[in-house]
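Much of the work behind modern protein science is quiet bookkeeping, done one molecule at a time. The protein below has been through that process, and both of its lines are reproduced in full.


***
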Amino acid sequence: MQVVRTVKDPEERRLEILDTAMRLFVERGYDAVSMRDIARAADVTPGLAYHYFDSKQKLFAAALEAYAAECTEGFLHILDDGQLTLADKMDALFAAVADEEGLRYHDFFHAEGNRAFHEQLSFALCERMYPHLLAAVKAEARRRGAVVRDPEVLVNFITYGQLGLMSDRSMPDPRKLELIRNYVEVLMESQIEPA
């Protein structure tokens, strides 16, 4: 009997392996899944899985990067919209944060035992957002005919400073967002001044 091989586009195959791995990580936990398990579930040979990802750690890093890109896609579109004021951008960003549960790997990164993975994701999101928020803050200052005192420090503080509050599971998300929004507004207004 002859085995029929299905030839797929390499990127399609890579994404299938990635999605399969993340599904298994959600079901069993990261530590309980091997590359062999991933290959079997993706219906590929272990050698092919290793062809795309040298190790489970590199596969996870690729999943983290893909999820960070997916999470920030809408945010970056908002930040890069030259028609919106900074206040409008902040309104849109905070509304978008409340609607993240439908994303592809949400269940894994937000699972109870995956706090370390969630923190890695948080930093990856910040790294992706930082240059766009910096550009938006500078554009707002230009729009107002003003200057931003220490824009890099301001944007670093806003971007990374909210991580502790966002990671606090004792407070409901709407309350966290309200507090962050208030602090961001105060910080922004205190650092953008007439030229």
